[in-house]
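Kindly go through the following sequence and its backbone structure tokens. Advise at your convenience whether the structure tokens fit the sequence:

___
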Amino acid sequence: MGDNAWDSAEGKYDQPSSSVPGPAKVKAPKGKAPAEEAPIGEPTDTRPSGNIFLDAALAYAARGWPVFPCNPRNKAPYLPKDRDAKGDPIPGTGGLKKASTDPDVIRNWWRKWPKAMIGARTGSNGLFVIDFDPGTYENKKTGETITCTLESLKADLEAAIGCPLPASLSVRTAGKGGVHVYFRQPDEGADIRNRNTLPDRIDARGTDGYVIVPPSVNAEGREYRWLHGDADVEPVEAPTALVDILRKPKAAAAEQTNVGAKAPASSRPSAPASRPTTEADAEAQAVERYGAVALEREVEKARGAGDGTRNNTINAAGLALGHLVGAGAIGRDEAIEALVDVARAWPDLDKSTDTITRAVDDGANDPRDLSHVRDDARARFRRWAEKSSFRASGPSGARAAEIEETFQSGMVADGGAAVGGEADAAFDQMPRPATASERARQQRALHAQLSKYPRTDLGNAERFRDRFGQDFRFSPALGWFAWDKRRWKLLTAEANKVPGEVLSAVYKMVRAIRREGWVVLASGVPDPEKNPGGLDRTVFDERGKPRRLSSALFAWAESSEGNSRISCIPGLVRPFLTVGSDEFDRDLYAFNVQNGTLRFRKAERPDGSWRVMLRLFAHDRRDLLTKISPVRFDPKAKCPAYDKLFEWAQPDEKMRSYLHQWGGLSLTGETGDQILHFWKGSGGNGKGTVMDAWCFVAGDYFDSVGIGTFLSQGVEKSGDKATPDLAKLPGVRLLRVSEPKKKAKLAEELIKLVTGQDPIDARHLNKGFFKYLPHFKLTILGNHWLGIEGTDNGIWRRVKLIDWPAQIAEKDKDTGLKDRLQAEGSGILNLLLQGLLQYMRQGKLLEPKSVTLATASYREASDPLGRFLTLCTRPSEKGRVQSSKLYEVYEAWCVPAQETAWSNKGLAQAMLDKGYKKKASDGMQWLGVELIKTRHDFIDNDGKAIPFDGPDDADAVDPAPPPDIAPGGWGDVDAGMEAFDGEDEPI
């Protein structure tokens, strides 16, 4: 039977395609929540299970399509009805009523019935289906035998509706050539249900119906398969006339002949909007998804209301949805209709309807602020837009969408409990390797394909690209990378030299050209009738003489082994494999471990709280990750030795929690907090041992640089000099700097740069300059104070001082502790992941008071003028101090304070920097302040120091030098310092 009846302007329906739909193309209907997120312990990778029916069923569930298993013999559901206490079946409880999107439930079903066909419940997935059933049958009224073809059935339906049937998502059934055509449920009016109001042999499957979906196979071995493109074709709107027929009684429907237009756009589309092309589109889609989830949850709450609570519950639900109506997340009629549908099962529907309507309207007058939803959507769109611009084989927009879809599909583990919870064997599953016979077939196919490439140097470069290109990448700034099955490893090589790994692959490629010749020779001479698959055609060599392709390939293989041909291939293949240095390690919330790649995401719940998620993905070369940790992710792993050490070194539980948040954050590329840690304490206090353990867990994500990199004069070089200390830091997330020398001072502008979010220029030795965004969190460890000359908030808001007060005696040191901590790497990773997830949930680091106070004390000790003003002056609205008098007291104070006194002009500059105002009156006067000390409070008549009470650490930091002042200049007035509230929040 021909399929020309299914021709359309968009092409034929009958085009074989993939069996399993791509989950990104179809979403849950409006008013329906996405598939429920999987519980803790849910297998978290997308590798095939080994059962194509189970894999497909899970893919449908991820789209929001409820599925259930059906008998391959008769298409009947396998699921029996529930039974009451008497053992009698309960009506309406079996079969499609048990359809589910829960991955655990679905896996259990297909373990029990591994060959079950997949039933998809219609209506609840936002679709209805037109079922064409061609074949020969007997007319019961006339006894006539009638043969219906697809062409005739389609013509009958088009005659009934008076317009062409549009092309849409369609399935070739496993019966006698039938077709299922999927349409969206209409936006307005009642849903389409199961109806037989269409011409003979054409039915509708809608609400409370179901269809069998690909790749199901019946008992006769016949397969259901997608038609018209592929599984991701978006279902279209049904013609209005078709919708009218399906809604009318059968008698009236039989008379339907008018020509219809398209029905309004569905309020419950089966597919989500395509990937947004603008930030505005991304915002709109995010708000719509937010509203859909909230609607479903409020409806479920209302359904669970008991006697005596229904009115209050429905009123609260109406108010909650009304807030979202006002915010534009859902429609007013949609919210009211959804709640009225619940109230239909209650007494006094009219009263409930009035309550719902008033509540929704009241809520709409107070719209909910969804700016955070829009902000997150814009941020996601920008990240996706960056990823979609990758070259070569970088993580494309499709890969980014695939990763994000995994988190949206519900196949995730909740971050709050996944770490330290029960391990799941699926974390360690790897894709099934190809068998020897499969590999042989793949190789023969590749040899045959490459035999058609030109026998030139460029042709050989193309051969290398197709044989080994998937395993190599080249970056002009960084050099060659090779895929080692877990990450892209930077190959060590001198500038302009080809690494041995690349040359080895070139040798293998050249030798494989002979294999191409043998495959061509074995295929024989092509003949349209006797040997259509033959490849050994006649070609012409470089002299224009005819010869067999196999002979030409053998000759070319020998010629290609010359030094000049081998040495040119790496250079010629570079354009095929080039990626920018900024394309590696782009996912800032991906952390590569030995058994996969951990990713982290967060999503806001309707109640405003945050749900954080982690997921372990299989290693994937498309991710372009170059870093890896030496540990495995094991949610059950513990670390008793580390716990004992950490509790001894930091007895305060809030401090330990804060430090684990910092450590977990240091496993990511997130730098929004723009801070650094300074861990201070004398030796033997555990800070170095704890940091050693963290650095081991971080693996390639950790690096260290000398303290000179971040000290004044440490990196002040001419613009064309190499900066290898900074050039090695792209992709680094945990950066350790140890042991500043006494009197060392930070290079404050560089600190602001590397803790900010602006790009850094860097260059390796003998290589070109490149830019990168710093993603590292800087932790400085030391026994001595670091000098910070600046007094502005721009530097001090970035510094957090962590005191390590413990002290261990030399005789009590445990020389084997380092090895034991490394053995506990997986457990330590779990603690850092818990800290990271806590940070993500709360949106900031929960800083203990001890850190706030220690940092404030450090700042005070680093600001001699601040200490002087605190001790010797007080604010006064009408007060004023003569500048010479202020300087006289200041100069005296410097003697017992052991500070180097600035000049009068230097003091004036510093006062201006702090925001003080001056006025010329009887000399120069400082306004808004008055002196409360005299010079004799600090020195006697002989100029000797008089001790005074001050901060214990007043002289802990080396004296700050006077500010630089241009001759005759006074500087600018500082607008003041921003207050910081370090109050702890409950965890």
